[in-house]
């Protein structure tokens, strides 16, 4: 009786392992599909028509127009402040036409007219000082020194980015972890199937010995 019970518990453990393996396989495939459709494919399209170039500052200026930003001062404390628009015009090694520099793709989507969005604070004067500090940085510290920038001729031909939001490391992790989940699931299923096959063979050999 105890022997039959031990065999039942072992089979139940195998079934749990198989279910876990198939669950990981499904999770890995769904993750790859979801990330590919919602995030990875747009990121690759964003990078598809772009590349790196050398940029040189042509002009740094503040516009009279001010933009709104939202600050947070606690869990239930939020408000709106304003900041001046800083524009950094550059010339790239790929084109003689001036282009507007942005921090990254996220800043470009948030405010395509400006080159810099300061950390939003309650005080408009502090926001203006942060923008002025950035303006001095581009005028005095960078000046005419060339630096690396990134562009996309297909999506935004008149804009360049100082850095990429979707770099190679992010794209690698986006693909790597769903793939690891899928492979772990396949490994669990394969090992469980092999263990079940070996157990069946051992049981058959044991029966032949008793005959």
From TrEMBL:
It comes from the Eukaryota. It is a multi-pass membrane protein. The keyword Disulfide bond does not apply. The chain crosses the membrane at residues 20-42, 175-199. One of its GO terms (cellular component) is voltage-gated potassium channel complex. GO terms for biological process: detection of calcium ion. It is found in: Membrane. Its main location: membrane. GO terms for molecular function: calcium-activated potassium channel activity; potassium channel regulator activity. Keywords: Glycoprotein, Ion channel, Ion transport, Membrane, Transmembrane, Transmembrane helix, Transport. PANTHER family: CALCIUM-ACTIVATED POTASSIUM CHANNEL SUBUNIT BETA (PTHR10258), CALCIUM-ACTIVATED POTASSIUM CHANNEL SUBUNIT BETA-4 (PTHR10258:SF3). This is KCMB4 protein. The lineage of its organism: Eukaryota, Metazoa, Chordata, Craniata, Vertebrata. The gene is Kcnmb4.
